[in-house]
Input
Amino acid sequence: MPEKIAVIGSGVGGVAVAARLAAKGYHVDVFEQSDMPGGKMSEIRHDGYRFDTGPSLFTAPEMVDELIALCNEYDTDFQYSKLDTICRYFYEDGMVIDASGDPLQFAAELAEKAGEDPGTVLKYLDESRKIFEFTYPVFIRNSLHRARNYLTSDFIRALFRLHRLNPFISLHQLNRKYFRHPNTVQLFDRYATYNGSNPYKTPSTMRVIPHLEHNVGAFFPREGMYQIIRTLTSLCEKLDVRIHLNTRVEEIVLSRNKVSGIRVNGEMMPYDMVVSDADIWFVYRQLLKNLPFREKWFRHERSTSALVFYWGMEMESRQLDMHNILFSADYALEFRHLFELKTLQPDPTVYIFISSKVVKSDAPDGCENWFVMINVPENNGQDWDEVIAGARCRIEEKIERLLKVDVAKHRKFEFILDPRGIESRTASYRGSLYGNSSNSMWSAFRRHPNFSDINGLYFTGGSVHPGGGIPLCLSSAKIVADLIPILKK
Ligand SMILES: Cc1cc2nc3c(=O)[nH]c(=O)nc-3n(C[C@H](O)[C@H](O)[C@H](O)COP(=O)(O)OP(=O)(O)OC[C@H]3O[C@@H](n4cnc5c(N)ncnc54)[C@H](O)[C@@H]3O)c2cc1C
Output
């Protein structure tokens, strides 16, 4: 019986699968090229400030709870709270919308500010819930690439409801059918960016995301997002998983059509199975050296990347909440630039996340930790230094215009993350945040499966099925663990 498993990469998918497989009785080692676990979900500490570097919005917390329970660890200090206001939206026309975590209040706010019919808002969210409930067990919690999953009762139930998915129209077209005010349409269009896609192209099925946020809720861990990684790595340690930092895997070693180990520092280390959390592009390009490149999985458009400024601010902003969006005046133009022209338009949508609004210890007294992000195209060799300089000016102008805050006056220091850094630090092809984009109705089927035709080789993380973002990466870890039997001693 195979017993030893190597996991390549300690992103959220990697540590989640390591804990799951160790709980099944396997001896698991995790290899991480960086000096800290977490991949895109990392943290920076500087001068009394703490920043989560990547994900900032936490939905579906029950997936972390499920892992904690699976590992029988009931005394972790992992706690989180539900946000009253999910996000504050600022528009160039002066409108400000507080998106409440309570659907009724959210509908009332959209009625008051944008003249929407509250019944229509609730109907939209309710239909999103129904679609989520029948797609989730089939498309998210299971492999799409195993024939036997098409014979389950869940799949057959979903088959009878497929017409509700409306995959032939875009998310934007759907939102225009429901809502009167362009600002409401823009608010609901934004959900396409949650997996790096274009609302004018991505199928309307993406409407399931507002269900998670508005019907179920948005949450925040008591000590910030990186606490998720700290919790998962401590589960791993308790199950005797060893996490080897600063250790790059150079090759997945095969013998005939089966995994026989990995190569690290030129040395072969024997393993019975390998689960890779690394971007699938690099797995084929660099780690499976003697295999032909599987072109068919990579023809697809990449998802967007990000440009993030981490600003240590010596001020407290009364107008801002924890999650804030300063919308672009022309969303269609923004996405044309991101996906067709591969540049930035002059007025990008700006996201400002301030964890110190909730986690007071994340910034010194009277100060705030601003994570300021814009969507940018994947790295195609653009002159990023020039893009960054231009973007910084435009973002500062927008903040001054909409919030009346002089950033330069209050900024103590700055760190920057751009697509080049995302690519080099987390080995994500072209710095895309979510692997392939979901800009076509077939995207879900064109993501690489969680298994391969090589015996003992599996894949987890945001570049494979079911996709990027914390909940989906945690799902991919579950799917992989379900494919590997419990170890019988
Ligand atoms: C700025 C930003 C904002 C985001 N916002 C959100 C959000 O609000 N909500 C959300 O849900 N998601 C968000 N995401 C996306 C989310 O962070 C990712 O989908 C998720 O964290 C990816 O996890 P993963 O398991 O794919 O691993 P990754 O985080 O991609 O990590 C892979 C790891 O593998 C390691 N590795 C690769 N190759 C090797 C090798 N050969 N040897 C050893 N180690 C290797 C890398 O160093 C890396 O640590 C955001 C991402 C970023 C960057």
